[in-house]
Amino acid sequence: MWKKFFGRGKDNADVAEAAVEAGRVPRHVAIIMDGNGRWAKAKGLMRTAGHREGVGTLKKILRKAKDMGIEVLTVYAFSTENWKRPAAEVDFLMALFSEYLQKEVRNMYEENVCIKFIGKTNELSPALQKEIAAAQELTKDNDGILFNVAANYGGRDEICRAARQIARAVQKGELTANEIDEAVFENYLDTAGVPPVDLVIRTSGDLRLSNFLLWQAAYAEFYFTDTNWPDFSPEEFAAAINNFAARDRRFGGL
Ligand code: IPE
Ligand code: IPE
Ligand code: MG
Q1: Is 46 within 8 Å of 217 (Cβ atoms)?
Q2: Is residue 128 a contact partner of residue 97, using CB atoms and an 8 Å limit?
Q3: Counting Cβ atoms within 10 Å, is residue 218 exposed (0-12), middle (13-18) or buried (19+)?
Q4: Catalytic: which of 12, 14, 67, 82?
Q5: pLDDT digit string (tens) for 77-104?
Q6: Which conformational region is residue 10 in: left (phi greater than 0), alpha (psi within -120 to 50 degrees), or beta?
Q7: What span, in angstroms and rounded, lies between the C-alpha atoms of 219 and 202?
């Protein structure tokens, strides 16, 4: 019985191993990496220091996710609402994304990570768009893990963009209105072909989705933790996976 592995006070790494052994690892995990600013504030640092520290966390969690056999990791890096922040912070984040790609893409390639950006990437700077395209092209045949980075992403925006494309297909006569069902609709989302989100993790204590993966998380489980993203460890990630593995998902059935 897989349940016997869990909640026995073993250290988290062992428990996660058990989740892996039990075949109860989520296929698709999505993370709302929140709390960089609060982490920095608590240390008397600039908010930007929190974002920088958060990149370090992301590297570790990506590796852990891959080691655990998670197929897809989707992380929320910048929302369509985050443009409301002071320009200096937005600029810093954009520069950080560039720096991250420049430093990490080679490693990702070597570690068999396939990186893909979701969201309205066409509104990012041309330079960043080029780096994104190059990163996606370099890693496109990797199959160790699919690593989706949501940048200028909003769930509502994604659904609107899909609806627009579907309307165009109908206008052109490629599709009829009656043919639009959930499976067809999904093909027009940024995550076309990707399994639905099994587990959403949000760090830093807020209990909301903030416009993340509205369609894909329709039946997701949620894991909320007070830990700020820069302090979120592979051990706590494994604990979240363990927690997920012990849940009973009914999908409306009995
Ligand atoms: C998450 O941390 C990172 C982004 C939204 C880019 P925050 O910057 O939202 O940190 P808090 O929520 O202000 O602590
Ligand atoms: C969600 O965090 C977006 C990202 C983590 C990129 P926010 O900090 O922007 O969310 P709200 O404003 O608290 O809802
Ligand atoms: Mg926040």
Answers
A1: no
A2: yes
A3: exposed
A4: 82
A5: 999 999 999 999 999 999 999 999 999 9
A6: beta
A7: 16
